[in-house]
């Protein structure tokens, strides 16, 4: 796999095969990543774009003004909150000096002992004095009728009362734009406005010169065509906006755990009510305003609300207030909800700023560049056509229907001249309408929105639109093990306790009661999970998969979770840490411990087996005696750990030590800084936890490898466990691959210099015992090597790597990043090619036909109304049909698409050139020799029949070409066509409308009825594009992109200059 990428630091994989791209670095449309792009860079491409309808073109790009307004509002809110807090501090200081205290808080009345205004003011102003006057968190919970251990009742009546008293956790959202708003925006197009004005002029002049009966045809037909374009465009855009609204709803609907009726239940973030008790862990987003009930080393990142990037330590007495929208950076705890929805600062902010549509994607920006370039060409062509037609008209070279000159100096009436000039001008403007692919960037947005829906159906929630696009460029995936490659369904299958192997692992009879009691005490307290026993005796265990597995094992050993929790109290807690790979708790037991023969504090540790084992100096045997850990015993246990790891078991060790009560700090502030002792531990047990490989993951890995995407596993697990899972998943082909640097430990990789890391990162397939920083270093090294990196992680500690990666795939994070079961990644990039190729073919053909005919014959075969119909097929209907084309497995046989590779590939250039040249050649031959070739001399109006055949053949060519565009590099263009109902429907609608236009709307569209022979000729001309496409696909294309040749020549000229 690594052979695909050169080790030369000068070579940029994404840029293709050459580095002669310096001339393009300054292009405003060449943005490698919009993920963290500066505002000035984003503003620059908007200013450089040739835009006819800004409201439509920039609809799904980042609204820079709104973004600035949002930041301004946030700054004001922060300043307001700081001012209120400062006032309370002054007030508190003054009351201490004067001895005058504020009056006691008034009762809230109603169903609860406190009112909404009072609780909101305490929470928003973070008024610790008022909270203490209520009796602290306990007094507040009593007023809210909440049990701090069991939460609220949670029945429908209770929830309804709380919502009516304190509001719901929603905020008023701005209504989506109505259909008529989209109609208005579609009509803002500059060219369409000009055409409406031209239609009005044509109508007035036509009625004046030809009378009301015939004079209204031209003007009304152009106006009707423009109106049709506006309505169809608005309908398409409206449907698209509804799709985005649904996606945004899905993104905002985060699932979180709350404690209700003594058990943990998962609910929507919208269903949180005041009085709810919510457990918080590292990586969670605080879902509402609240106060801390109890916490251990809880630290919160409040930068989203305060603007200050420092981490704030929280405790239940001095700083208990938690703000909605902030992130838990460390520790864990439980909070009591005091404010929801618009009664929180975050809710106020969200209510005042409507949902933005996210940043634009690099492809959107580049397509705006393409649209600008084509638009400039179109304007130039339109200018040439206008100039040539006007000159030919006034020099007498333009013929009328009788064959004579249309303009005769001194004889042709002024009204007729004006009418003819309006007609010429209308054709020129219509060329601009067709030439500027205003819908091209929108079509890509539609494609991405469709991709998002497809990925959601595959249980992958995409939070950034650009991720769908960037995924097609990924050259390597750094995957987590747990929950990504494995099922995350863990069970304890092996256990060593008292230095003997327990078989079965949950056989409590083999352990003495005192041994079991100290073991289960540690398990019950040293966990972020919980156990709920219903009245019927049913047990429900919650927590992370590892926690659940150990808790279930302890229950089988006889653990009474509630009794242990109430019979002893946690003095200090050290949450599991990905850097140290362990977590601990200091427990003060009410009952006397026979194990330690005194009432000392027990410090329990649990974590990675070899790391906890390294801190153990003794172990407890089956006789409850402490035995020194000799070298032989240590080696025996390490062999047992390696044996379990080799069978892909996750090994966790549980240990304990005693600590004198009088050495524990009594002051709360000192206690919060007290570090749990982690030496001289007594080993209690080592358990092996099985996490089965996810079904089908081996095929997925193989599929990625075939597509040129290297899958690397980066895990915090033991190197042997990582190796076993990697072999099972196909990331490592055989045991012979399992050596450095293919298989490496995080600490080894970390110790290398940056140059060494960059050199070996290509070869790494598995990294075991890695810290979050090791993952970040690997991602940075791979990006420096030119890779487009996708990272999967559980979000708890992978945030730096997820942020650094080109695509972050977050697994089951509660909070801002949610994506579930993301083991299969769909690569959707074919649709862009289809849309671009189809639109450019129509553009090139329509422009060339009209400009050549105008220059040589002084007339254009495609009229304004006909061109508007072609534009409708191309810009809206065709794009919609191709944008919703589902991906095929064939895509996985193709190498990743580099982000800097040319937008129009050599395959697209070949297909586009063949189709456009064919259409231009055939239709120009018809334009000049059509009357004789089609034997039309005997017809009453041969010129009109000829022009109708040209128009009909041109449209039918586009219908046939839409099939070609579905599969740009496959011979079988019909595969799966019937599965795309929208594509088939749009093709059928286009055919029916074309028949109606030609046969029944001749007066409006300047066409005449065709006999069956002319229809056969039109279909015959269109059908040739299918065999032509097959022949074209057999022609090989050079690997070096066409655009590189121009870059090389420019670079050489610059170098010689």
Alpha carbon gyration radius: 36 Å
The tally of helices reads: 37
Q: What form results from the Cα inertia axes?
A: elongated
Q: Describe the biggest sheet?
A: 9 strands, mixed
Beta-strand content: 5-15%
Low-confidence stretches: 1-25, 101-109, 353-357, 811-832
Tell how many strands the DSSP assignment holds.
Answer: 24
Structural class by sheet pairing and helices = alpha+beta
Query: Taking all residues together, what is the mean pLDDT?
Result: 76
Calculate the terminal CA-CA distance, rounded to whole Å. 41 Å
| Approximate helicity band | 40-55%
Protein architecture, described:
It is found in: Membrane. The chain has 1057 residues and is an alpha+beta fold. Helices cover 49% and strands 14% of the residues. It contains 37 helices and 24 strands. Helix 28 (799-804) links the parallel strand 23 (789-793) and strand 24. Helix 13 packs antiparallel against helix 14 and helix 31 (906-933) runs antiparallel to helix 36 (1025-1034).
Question: Which key features would you list for this structure?
Answer:
37 helices, alpha+beta, 1057 residues, single chain
